[in-house]
Sequence to fold (141 residues):
Amino acid sequence: MLFEELGKANIQALKDHDKTARAILSVVYGKCKKESIDKGLNAKSLADEDCIRIISKTIKELEEEISGFEKANRPEQVKELNDQKSVISKYLPKMMSDDEIRAEISKLEEKSIPSIMKHFKANFMGKCDMGTVSKIAKEFI
Fold:
């Protein structure tokens, strides 16, 4: 499971004295552990979908921070955050390409924006960027 994998990677980063990986992995692992506790699950039983959602949200937060540091002309922080982003990005599944999204939308009977978004949230959450799905869905209207 992804939750256990994150925990092992966090410990390995600690052993390797990898400050960059340790910083982001401890944050993500902590968020996953909190989610597990909030759901009343025992330790190490959080679903991969929940971990993927947490990782995706953390990456978006990092991107916002990167944008802020770029505006403030702080290249050392931008590099650090990009390194952290690359560390946790490898735990996400392969993202769908624009062509794969178009192919999936073309298979749907109902091609309204709400039904397309609902279909992708239910079946492909974490495997595609919902902003991209929305943009491509507008091509079909």
